[in-house]
């Protein structure tokens, strides 16, 4: 079964203050993307598609794509502001990217097989790649609308250096997703976890499943993405900072009965570099994983 990894690598890194996709965090100078690609190959993926910006094409190709192409098929496409549905004019003042849902849509012409979406700047761990790949392979004879997600416990995904946004999931007793809501400004407040939601505070236990943007989709998601994106633009035309998020689309598809989403628990710890202060922690954690023998000293 063909299985593609779609890597969202067009982010601006605004909170982080630089192009964090290319930061070296491993003992051999590896980036976080290096570990995701390594884990994906081990899990049985056979193609990787990157969503990037034109202004980082040269660096990405020289530092990443050339070495990966010796191990796996590599393709890339650009996320551009003016790539929007026909018949809609780009808002004049719009400069902010359209978000993760739009980024995935950029790959609709080159992905025709089941695929998995991840962020370039998140370290997901081997278990996420394996559990999602195994699930998708097990469903290969009946994949249409059979989506999945690697789920992480909220308490294990927070940053010590600032608040974060997370897609918080509600699941049934078989871990099928009932709903997912994007919550913003989540963080520790003394010994409890709270989110600020329209001037209200929402308290969490920390054991809730959250999305770290690790999704398994089938190609039938693309027409739905496009249809919902057109609707999103029209409804948010005057809001030049609005973003089209993957969890929003997934939630709509589940509620309409067009798809099911199996939430598969990832047992490895997630970590990422949302803020500059997170980088030393990531370097230390990868060092520990290497010393434990989970990764070689030099990946490539």
Explain the overall architecture.
With 300 residues, this protein is an alpha/beta fold. The strands form two sheets. Strands 1, 2, 3, 4, 6, 7, 8, 9, 10, 11 and 12 form an eleven-stranded mixed β-sheet that branches. It has a two-stranded antiparallel sheet with strand order 5-13. Helix 1 runs parallel beside helix 4 (126-138). The model is unreliable at 12-17 (pLDDT under 50). It is globular. It has a single domain, classed as Spore Coat Polysaccharide Biosynthesis Protein SpsA, Chain A (Alpha-Beta Complex). The protein has helices at residues 32-43, 57-68, 100-105, 126-138, 221-235, 246-255, 279-291; strands at 4-8, 47-52, 73-78, 115-119, 122-123, 146-153, 164-171, 177-189, 192-197, 200-204, 209-217, 260-265, 271-272.
* CATH homologous superfamily annotation: Spore Coat Polysaccharide Biosynthesis Protein SpsA, Chain A
Number of helices: 7
Secondary-structure arrangement, i.e. CATH architecture: Alpha-Beta Complex
What is the 3D form?
globular
The CATH topology name reads Spore Coat Polysaccharide Biosynthesis Protein SpsA, Chain A
Question: What's the story with the biggest beta sheet?
Answer: 11 strands, mixed
Provide the number of structural domains: 1
CATH class: Alpha Beta
What is the H-and-E element order?
EHEHEHEEHEEEEEEHHEEH
Short characterization:
With 300 residues, the protein is an alpha/beta fold. The protein has helices at 32-43, 57-68, 100-105, 126-138, 221-235, 246-255, 279-291; strands at 4-8, 47-52, 73-78, 115-119, 122-123, 146-153, 164-171, 177-189, 192-197, 200-204, 209-217, 260-265, 271-272.
């Amino acid at each position: 079964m063909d299985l593609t990894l779609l890597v969202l690598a067009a982010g601006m890194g605004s909170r982080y203050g630089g192009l964090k996709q290319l930061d070296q965090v491993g003992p051999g100078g590896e980036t976080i993307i290096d570990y995701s690609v390594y884990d994906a190959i081990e899990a049985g993926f056979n193609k990787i598609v990157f969503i990037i910006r034109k202004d980082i094409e040269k660096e990405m190709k020289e530092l990443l794509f050339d070495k990966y192409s010796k191990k796996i098929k590599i393709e890339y496409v650009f996320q551009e502001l003016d790539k929007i549905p026909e018949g809609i004019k780009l808002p004049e003042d719009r400069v902010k990217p359209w978000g993760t849902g739009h980024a995935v849509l950029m790959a609709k012409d080159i992905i025709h097989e089941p695929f998995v979406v991840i962020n370039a700047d998140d370290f997901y761990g081997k278990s996420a790649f394996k559990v999602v790949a195994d699930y998708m392979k097990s469903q290969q004879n009946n994949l249409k609308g059979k989506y999945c997600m690697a789920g992480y416990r909220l308490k294990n995904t927070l940053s010590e250096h600032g608040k974060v946004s997370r897609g918080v999931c509600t699941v049934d007793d078989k871990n099928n997703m009932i709903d997912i809501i994007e919550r913003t400004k989540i963080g520790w407040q003394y010994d409890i976890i709270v989110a600020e939601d329209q001037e209200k505070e929402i308290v969490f236990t920390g054991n809730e499943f959250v999305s770290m943007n690790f999704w398994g989709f089938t190609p039938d998601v693309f027409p739905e993405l496009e249809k919902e994106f057109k609707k999103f633009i029209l409804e948010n035309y005057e809001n030049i900072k609005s973003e089209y998020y993957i969890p929003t689309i997934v939630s709509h598809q589940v509620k309409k009965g067009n798809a099911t989403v199996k939430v598969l628990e990832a047992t490895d710890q997630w970590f990422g570099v949302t803020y500059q202060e997170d980088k030393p922690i990531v370097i230390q954690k990868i060092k520990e994983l290497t010393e434990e023998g989970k990764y070689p000293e030099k990946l490539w």
